[in-house]
Amino acid sequence: xxxxxxxxxxxxxxxxxxxxxxxxxxxxxxxxxxxxxxxxxxxxxxxxxxxxxxxxxxxxxxxxxxxxxxxxxxxxxxxxxxxxxxxxxxxxxxxxxxxxxxxxxxxxxxxxxxxxxxxxxxxxxxxxxxxxxxxxxxxxxxxxxxxxxxxxxxxxxxxxxxxxxxxxxxxxxxxxxxxxxxxxxxxxxxxxxxxxxxxxxxxxxxxxxxxxxxxxxxxxxxxxxxxxxxxxxxxxxxxxxxxxxxxxxxxxxxxxxxxxxxxxxxxxxxxxxxxxxxxxxxxxxxxxxxxxxxxxxxxxxxxxxxxxxxxxxxxxxxxxxxxxxxxxxxxxxxxxxxxxxxxxxxxxxxxxxxxxxxxxxxxxxxxxxxxxxxxxxxxxxxxxxxxxxxxxxxxxxxxxxxxxxxxxxxxxxxxxxxxxxxxxxxxxxxxxxxxxxxxxxxxxxxxxxxxxxxxxxxxxxxxxxxxxxxxxxxxxxxxxxxxxxxxxxxxxxxxxxxxxxxxxxxxxxxxxxxxxxxxxxxxxxxxxxxxxxxxxxxxxxxxxxxxxxxxxxxxxxxxxxxxxxxxxxxxxxxxxxxxxxxxxxxxxxxxxxxxxxxxxxxxxxxxxxxxxxxxxxxxxxxxxxxxxxxxxxxxxxxxxxxxxxxxxxxxxxxxxxxxxxxxxxxxxxxxxxxxxxxxxxxxxxxxxxxxxxxxxxxxxxxxxxxxxxxxxxxxxxxxxxxxxxxxxxxxxxxxxxxxxxxxxxxxxxxxxxxxxxxxxxxxxxxxxxxxxxxxxxxxxxxxxxxxxxxxxxxxxxxxxxxxxxxxxxxxxxxxxxxxxxxxxxxxxxxxxxxxxxxxxxxxxxxxxxxxxxxxxxxxxxxxxxxxxxxxxxxxxxxxxxxxxxxxxxxxxxxxxxxxxxxxxxxxxxxxxxxxxxxxxxxxxxxxxxxxxxxxxxxxxxxxxxxxxxxxxxxxxxxxxxxxxxxxxxxxxxxxxxxxxxxxxxx
Length: 986
Prior knowledge:
Number of strands: 23
Shape: globular
Number of helices: 32
Strand order of the largest sheet: 12-13-14-18-15-17-16
CATH topology of the largest domain: Cytochrome Bc1 Complex, Chain A, domain 1
Distance between the termini: 50 Å
């Protein structure tokens, strides 16, 4: 069942939704009238009564009764359930049990190519009509309509908004035609092949080479070793309509298909739709069994005393060092029983203990930047335990010895009960939170969980079942049992390893093999000591205070609270998301706070500020005191403000507020987090140059903001000059500056929250005003002139280009910024049609709209794409032509509707969550116009006219000459013209 290791990989608190808008404030979760029941007949093939549903065969895991399962005579299986999150949406997943591992040698890439061609043209969709058709139904391309191809499956995904019976019937008709009868024509192949090749070409070359060579080494002798979903150029270019159709006929059959539907509709009616459109589906020809994926086997000469098999040293001059070794075992199907899941939980706990020890050693200044142990069932090919770490220097042997020594200690001696209990507390809060929040789980997530369970040949379980299984086996979490499972994790048929290094002289396959075979002494120095920490023992932040103002803001039931020291808070207590509370703290002046010479400390602060501690708590103490609690501590620098964000629950809210307030009122300045952040930045810096995308990650903000030094990624010289003392000198005054706003939205007791605010933020000393020079700093979006040219050291056929038009910023013009979002979506559709669908020059061109709300400048509309160097001028020309046409002629009504309908649906769905409203109202305690602008939010995003779009284009796309930026390979010139004079290589 989907619990244990897979669920526990996501223990980190969730962040607020990054959505854009909401309807007129009225209620938390607007409930539309229930949709009329879909028509009879009743489903014929539901597995009811004493029939064991197909997904539970061989399992004693209690059924999740909210799911209904069916299996049709043709072999197709399905699962349906009602779910109202978000309201009126239905999520559909069609899974085909065929991926890249099912391909023959001459078909490598066909599963993925077929995925593209399925969307291109089919029985009920004309050539190239899919995107527009689904947009008219309110589905956003790329998020609501998407697909994925993995080694083991291909999944088609569709989230349908406002899913009334007529729309659902139409969607199922379209999907059935896509899956059963795609056109697979010569014209379609000619259209999609360039797109797939562009997708392949645009991947970071160095990272892709490492991924391919690592797979060949770690899965040597197995089909997975040479079958990436993206395929090979030779096989793809040799594809014909007949060969792709043969792949489709071999694998796209009802017995290989599972359809999962979860949404705001009668599940029995959903089952009827599945049966109506797929029950008569018949495969062509005889069923083809899946190929033998192969087992990991030790090479000749390897045995239990000498288990190391294939090793490889990959030399990539621009990538940081990393080393992986894997203990490999054959994967076998299992009966997904409770006993089996108890074993998985013990495995997961054993890994958690080792990982905590490895992290403790790294924090203390070890020989590696990070290290992690992770057991994974890989593509039904291997049951493997992976050990991955990043050496800090060329002395990779010492780093390997240090990591192996920590693991050797876990193998030699059982953990303490305190260590076990610490991890159990983390598990318990995660599983209990899942039970609390089950009512707000999105239907799309539930559907994806079933697809994942089918892929790994396991079951699904209700959150209550997961918690019951876990709590019912706590007597099995003994030191001896944990040690036994630790030993099983590091026992296997063969050990394989890959070391990535920038220097060929450091190692070879033989020296790597020898290092893995060398004896190592267990090192228990990173075992956790038995000390207990409690919030009750921590010092008070200051003298507690009571609010000077408590008043409603006039929207929903949201209240404003102000304390005598100037701290403001917005509180909204509601039960829309049971068990979940989101807290956000805004303070200071964000990017405006930094002088050019302080830029390096801004970058380091993003990584090290929280870790440097508070009061009596360093990193280890922060981890310990929050064990078994649902708390977060995310830090971000925004355009005009700094933010702390955490997702918590009512029982932990007071202590969450303490952590945030203590960071401002009693910061600590441990050196190791700063030194570690320096090391991480130093190791990563050179890798940016390996691809156009990396160069953009490094330099785009710097170039876009007129080469403002604050936005330059610190180079090695800047990092070497940075010190912990300098870090403190920059950040200590910034934590004291500027007004504080605290937002608390979710399931909590309002009065208790106010009292906790009084003891924390209300107890802080008066804030220091933001200095005038910081308050007046602005960013300027670059414009005009010849294209700026940057260079990368990756493949010669990779390039990137960006065109940016300056817009504006600030809360006063929020309605116009929302209309700009419509304009950017129009631009995006046209750029996608030109650069992807028509010419195949770029896989995923995109247009984005930025509008900083806290500052009056810095906004921009930016068009961006990856492509061949020769296509950069064509991209610039296409962007210019689209901009000119939007200025010269209004868009058609239909074109506009294809944008506004998906935006309206996205906004309406997002507005059912608390985080959405928090995002809309942050800053409102000092800028009340943000509240006023809520009144027009939905209309601003979804109601406009062609003439209004034309006028907006004239204002922003014609009034400012855009900045053009190209990233091309070193040694090349842009458009056969020397880049001398305008080139900037960093």
